[in-house]
Design goal:
The structure is a single chain. The protein is mainly β. The chain has 1 helix and 13 strands, in the order H-E-E-E-E-E-E-E-E-E-E-E-E-E. A hairpin with a 5-residue loop joins strand 5 and strand 6. The radius of gyration is 17 Å and the shape is globular.
Length: about 160
């Protein structure tokens, strides 16, 4: 099962008001349960992979965006790019590489902004908008929550 499919299942549990979803494909089984404002994901994979448990806060009942990084309007016409998942935020692909973006950089849809590592998977977070980075809100190698603001962008 792809990470994208797992994220969709988590959104389903968070937004649709269901309390539990189980999916089984061959020898892969995943159960997602909502308990008191938290979503728990329990997965069993083929031999050689341990059982994984991940928690995420329940998403607010806002319309789902098919985007890689959720975007929300900020007070003074700035756009906030938020984390689409729980994980660890990285500004670059490795410690010896330059940051994907910095303050003042122009971005366009599809531009990689950062990486969020979740469950040992490195997920590139891409921009969905055009604009200029005004502020990076997270320190490198810091833990981030679902829907946590990562960048402030001035739209172009």
């Amino acid at each position: 099962m792809e990470l994208k499919e797992i994220k969709e299942l988590i959104k389903l549990v968070s937004e649709a008001g269901v309390s539990e979803v189980e999916v089984e494909r061959g020898d892969f089984k995943i159960a997602i349960k909502k308990i008191e404002e938290k979503v728990f994901v329990q997965s069993t994979a083929p031999v050689m992979q341990p059982q994984v448990v991940m928690s995420a806060p329940a998403a607010p009942s806002a319309p789902a965006t098919p985007a890689a990084a959720p975007v929300a309007e900020h007070a003074s016409n700035l756009i906030t790019i938020k984390s689409p998942m729980i994980g660890t935020f990285y500004k670059s692909s490795s410690p010896d590489k330059p940051a994907f973006v910095g303050i003042g950089d122009e971005i366009k849809p599809g531009k990689v902004l950062c990486i969020v590592e979740a469950m040992k998977l490195f997920n590139e977070i891409e921009s969905e908008i055009s604009g200029r980075i005004v502020k990076v809100l997270v320190e490198n190698a810091s833990p981030v929550e679902y829907d946590q603001p990562l960048f402030l962008v001035e739209p172009m």
